[in-house]
Write a structure and sequence with these properties.
It holds the Pfam family Trans_reg_C. By secondary structure, the chain is α/β, with parallel strands linked by helices. It has helices at 13-25, 36-45, 62-70, 86-94, 107-127, 166-177, 185-192, 201-216; strands at residues 5-9, 29-33, 50-54, 77-81, 99-102, 137-141, 144-149, 154-157, 160-161, 183-184, 224-227, 231-234. Strands 2-1-3-4-5 form a five-stranded parallel beta sheet, with helices on both faces. The radius of gyration is 19 Å and the shape is elongated.
Length: 237
């Protein structure tokens, strides 16, 4: 079995050292970045199985680091935050974090949360029907052609690759799979988010707005239909 690679983005050695010790006791390899820019450089050089990201970094805000890395990477991520404000938790989950932990914390708790996230990911993978690796899912809707590759988590719109975050991809892929079907905001959260109980319905609206902006960069047509007071659907055949 390959050794798990963990990237810990934390500028305080007093927090990092006991955490690193606990992670390495699990047999995992730990890389350390003490700034957001250093972390992004490391991510460009190698792949990781998990990212631990402190919100308070000396250069970039942890939320900004998360936004940048989610444009390219789908690595599971846990936020460390010094505050227990609900808005911090909501923002962190909305921009693509898988979990969060408030300081002070025990290293054992972080290890347990990492394992729990990996278990959820394994269950989700097992529940996805296997598809031939060389076949792409293609659905043509009116004048728009969607090319979906579940293996690489990529979607093309009108022949152009979309740069999507993890939740944007999941949201759009679900709508493409079920054209014309109307999903309520709660249904979308239950289908897509790992922690729907921590999210607000406006989280879905935020991601729909972001998706629309990216689609309109390719064509002014809007394939996502809003059903006021209920939810969303994708324009059908």
């Amino acid at each position: 079995m390959n050794q798990k690679q963990i990237l810990c983005i934390e500028d305080e050695a007093a927090i990092l050292l006991p955490l690193r010790y606990a992670l390495e006791r699990e047999g995992w390899s730990v890389s350390w970045a003490n700034t957001g820019m250093q972390a992004l450089e490391l991510l460009a050089q190698q792949s990781f199985d998990f990212i631990i990201l402190d919100v308070g970094l000396p250069d970039l805000n942890g939320f900004e680091v998360c936004k940048q890395l989610r444009q390219k990477y789908q690595t599971p991520l846990l936020f460390l935050t010094a505050r227990d404000d609900e808005i911090d938790r909501v923002v962190g989950l909305e921009i693509g974090a898988d979990d969060y932990c408030t300081k002070p914390f025990s290293a054992r708790e972080i290890v347990a949360r990492i394992k729990a996230i990996w278990r959820r990911m394994e269950v989700q993978t097992q529940n996805i029907p296997p598809q031939p690796p060389i076949i792409q899912t293609e659905i043509t809707l009116h004048s728009a052609t969607w090319m979906c590759n579940p293996q690489s988590l990529q979607i093309q719109y009108h022949g152009q690759m979309l740069q999507l975050t993890r939740y944007e991809y999941r949201l759009l892929f679900l709508l493409i799979q079920h054209p014309e079907q109307v999903f309520s905001r709660q249904q979308l959260m239950d289908h897509i988010w790992e922690h729907p109980e921590h999210s607000l319905e406006r989280t879905v609206d935020t991601h729909i707005k972001s998706l629309r902006q990216k689609l309109k960069q390719i064509t002014p047509d809007d394939p996502i239909r809003t059903h006021r007071g209920f939810g969303y659907s994708l324009v059908g055949f």
